[in-house]
Specification:
The structure is a single chain. This protein is of the alpha+beta class and 221 residues long. It has two domains: 3-44 and 144-206, no CATH class; 48-134, no CATH class. The chain has helices at residues 3-13, 25-43, 161-171, 182-206; strands at residues 47-48, 53-55, 62-64, 69-77, 80-81, 83-84, 103-105, 112-116, 127-134. The strands form two sheets. Strands 1, 2, 4, 5 and 9 form a five-stranded antiparallel sheet that branches. A four-stranded mixed sheet has the order 3-8-7-6, with no helix packed on it.
């Protein structure tokens, strides 16, 4: 579905098809966009490189995490995978040679990636690929890749109505007493959660994830 089709179907769900509308287009579009973002947070969609990268700058160790990224998963220099530092104390104090960055973390500065060792002149301009867990590439309430072209839902078609269920649950919690309906809000929230369950299952299948339960080998005889 397009964003306009999502909005039209949402208005049917809300019984809000005739003007003057109870909810403005901008309000409902923002709810739809929020629904897609929350779905990504709760299910793991999407995980890829999606053209995200870092361009190294001589003497610069800290870089902004790109917009629309939930979490950095890996950083690659071509086929070389940088090691994620889990100490939270990554720094340059123990650097002994001018080598390319080999470790990273996101614990030092909020919203930033910290590389170690700090890039030097030989690294300047190098591009590192980011493997990320992200939201949709474009905010559903904003514009797409081409200026003036509305963004489209990025979720698989099977899951796109999750956006409608989230938006409906938010709309029915509207502060206007004539529009407020907690029972309907909860009904659509539950429907959204059902889509989240389906999304998690789809994510696990497409990423070939398995859950295995077994005993500790130490205690086996």
């Amino acid at each position: 579905m397009t964003r306009a089709e999502l909005l039209a179907e949402l208005r049917i769900v809300l019984d809000d098809e005739a003007t003057p509308y109870g909810w403005a287009d901008a309000t409902l579009t923002n709810y739809l966009a929020e629904g897609q973002d929350v779905f990504c947070e709760r299910t793991g969609y999407f995980r890829d490189s999606a053209n995200y990268s870092l361009t190294l700058i001589d003497g610069t160790a800290i870089y902004d995490i790109p917009d629309r990224v939930i979490q950095i998963l890996d950083i690659w220099d071509g086929g070389r995978r940088l090691k994620k530092d889990l100490t939270g104390r990554l720094g340059d104090e123990d650097a002994t040679a001018e080598t390319s960055p080999s470790r990273w973390n996101t614990d030092k500065t909020t919203g930033s990636i910290h590389l170690w060792p700090t890039p030097v002149t030989a690294d300047d301009g190098d591009s590192y690929t980011l493997q990320v867990w992200r939201y949709s590439v474009y905010d559903l309430a904003g514009d797409g890749a081409v200026e003036g072209v509305a963004a489209v839902p990025e979720l698989p078609a099977r899951l796109q109505r999750a956006n409608i269920e989230w938006a409906a649950s938010k709309a029915f919690r509207h502060s206007d007493l004539e529009l407020n309906d907690k029972a309907k809000a909860k009904e659509h929230e539950n429907a959204f959660n059902d889509y989240v369950g389906s999304g998690i299952a789809m994510f696990r299948r497409t990423h070939n994830m398995e859950t295995r339960i077994g005993s500790d080998p130490t205690y086996r005889t």
